[in-house]
């Protein structure tokens, strides 16, 4: 069985409003593409920072600009008007662990994706607030990123670590963007602290096709990172991080080839924050 657990029902633009996208018609469009691509299990995971309640956790200016919708209305809509699993993409906010735990524990999510989009106040994947404009070396940014990923894994807040090597987003292996390069040499030395934490925490790790749609044009995570996860016994969740219906299950052929190469034959399925593994099985198309 195939899953797509990292779905957004709308683009990240501020003008993509909840009332236009949290609709049964829109979900039907996502479901139609999933059916075509043989994906049975879907879950929605809107960004936590688009909800007013997130400001109880963190008050970064980007969050203040985005926090417009009601989290409980989202949960209620997904539970009562859809057959999607109810998830959320929650940022790891160092120092805000207790406040984030309260926000998450008060709602009956099926699963929580943990993401690192910021290193302290600085963004990894946006031009605004960019950590890449602060004069740090790529080595320093990568080191801090994977240390933060390790903290996120150990925090106990999350069921799945989303796009686990997001820090590579701007840097194709064939370097065409020298402004935001990846560090030279074997990246595994950066991965190690995160893998150790993943092994200890028993958290699932996401394989995401969204990197193929970013400047890096690679799956998240790198094959060597995924091999280390397999050695550490980490269960794997499969997702597209689609923000529009046509990207549901996008490029799953490539993701499935990667999973097969590293010897993964089962995917995580979640219900009310309980995890089980289902065989990928024969895949159509
Ligand atoms: Zn994300
Ligand atoms: Zn996402």
What does this structure look like?
The chain has 285 residues and is an alpha/beta fold. Helices cover 33% and strands 19% of the residues. It has helices spanning 18-21, 24-36, 61-66, 71-81, 97-105, 138-154, 188-201, 223-231, 252-261, and strands at residues 2-7, 39-47, 85-91, 111-115, 118-119, 122-123, 160-161, 204-208, 236-239, 266-271, 274-279. It has a seven-stranded parallel beta sheet, with helices on one face. Helix 6 packs parallel to helix 7 and helix 7 packs parallel to helix 8. It is globular. The mean pLDDT is 96. Bound molecules: zinc ion (2 copies).
How do the helices and strands line up, and which of them pair or pack?
Elements: E1 2-7, H1 18-21, H2 24-36, E2 39-47, H3 61-66, H4 71-81, E3 85-91, H5 97-105, E4 111-115, E5 118-119, E6 122-123, H6 138-154, E7 160-161, H7 188-201, E8 204-208, H8 223-231, E9 236-239, H9 252-261, E10 266-271, E11 274-279
Parallel strand pairs: 1-2, 2-3, 3-4, 4-7, 7-8, 8-9
Antiparallel strand pairs: 5-6, 10-11
Bound molecules: zinc ion (ZN) (2 copies).
Give a brief description.
The chain is α/β, with parallel strands linked by helices and 285 residues long. It is built from nine helices and eleven strands. The chain is 33% helix and 19% strand.
For the termini, the CA-CA separation is: 13 Å
Largest sheet: 7 strands, parallel
Question: What would the average pLDDT be, to the nearest integer?
Answer: 96
**Regions with pLDDT < 50 over 5+ consecutive residues?**
none
Number of helices: 9
State the helical fraction.
Answer: 25-40%
Number of strands: 11
Radius of gyration: 18 Å
Class inferred from helices and paired strands: alpha/beta
User: For the largest beta sheet, what order do the strands appear in spatially?
Assistant: 1-2-3-4-7-8-9
- Small molecules in complex: zinc ion
- Fraction of residues in β-strands: 15-25%
Tell me, briefly, the overall form. globular
Order of helices and strands: EHHEHHEHEEEHEHEHEHEE
